[in-house]
Known about the structure:
The chain has one domain (about 5-409): Porin (Beta Barrel), CATH 2.40.160. The longest helix is centred in the N-terminal third of the chain and has 10 residues, at about 5-10. It contains two helices and 21 strands. It has helices at about 5-10, 195-200; strands at about 20, 25, 45-55, 75-85, 90-105, 110-125, 130-140, 160-170, 175-190, 200-215, 220-230, 240-250, 255-265, 275-290, 290-305, 310-325, 330-345, 355-370, 370-385, 390-405, 405-409. By secondary structure, the protein is mainly beta.
Amino acid sequence: MTKVEAMKRIASITGALTLTIVAAATAQESLGSAGPAPVLRPGWVFTPSLGVSETYDDNITLFSNLEPLNNNDFVSSIGPDGSLTYYGRHTHFSTGYGASFLNYRTFSVFDRWNQHAEAEFRRQQNARFAWFGQANAQAVPSTETLEYNGIPYVHTGAVTFDARGGATYKIDARNSVTSAVQYQHVTFDVQGDVYRRYLRGGWAATSTNNYRRRLDERLSLGADYVFVRSQVRDDLDLADTHTIQAALDYTLSSRWQFSGAAGIAVLAATAVTPGQTAPAFHAAVDRNDRGRRLHLAYMQGVLPAFGLGGSQNTKEATVSYFTPLFGSRRFFTDNSASYRDSTPVVPIVDALQLRSLRTFSTIGWAPQRWVRVEGFYTHLSQSSLIAGGRLDRNRIGFQIVTSKPMRID
């Protein structure tokens, strides 16, 4: 198979059914929202959960728009889950494991399991010092569930591990510092040379350091420094990126908050590529008002690309909105959208520039605290900017999620 044929193949064949991201870093095949809100009770609490859903999917294989195939289907899903939490005066601990099984009415060859596990620990040591640690792992059957940068959507499995730990220290009433380290690792169940070229996997280690000085009740200024060392499989050398930014946090009002930073990203030279620099900045606006939440964010920077290798200039815009409906907390709507544009920093032969869009909308009803009934719609599209390199998928369905916290004495 020639390189051109391989490019067209990758552009037209991508992963099968996937679902939303649960919590900050865990992909789980669970439609709708994350389920009923946890009940914060002191002591040990065990919470078993179960979710069932029915979905219509108009592109179960995520083929290119040029493929004249009828690959729509109805998908039934069941997803058991369990979590164990401890809430103390100064300590919080939680751990959980879950899985979901998808059953295709017509294309049973796509029936599969998805698994995830996570753990988190937070400790407020004293009035000035707090520290935390968290980790999660997942095994997914399709790359479309992954939020990592530079990954084309392909129907192949992946295993990921993500661990993070850090601390915050208040120097005095006005000054504080935060430092954290993170390790990420991803491997793909690659079959054939075509997928191996665009699903390479690797690891990344990140050190994040922030300083803030509060000037008054509303305004804080500071600086951020992020160092990322990564290696993608088959790359000849490590990739080191230094990002330095001046930062600002401002409380516009009791409801509105703004945070932003701007600076420069420096990609260190390697044995085969020269050093590079690029602008780096991010900004976010948040609004919280009586159960209504709005989040707007934009970022631009240099990130490692576990799919294609090397580093990419990445731009990403996100928006999310949650609000109760009809003046009742039992009815709600939750909506989000994200757009990402990734371009290789150093041009390489047959490199893919990926543009991805995800949207999600749900309307829900919570007759009790332990159950939610939701109707949802999701849209996904990705383009590699070559002929036949665009795909789209729409899904609509409903989900019922139940959970029952149980106190452990």
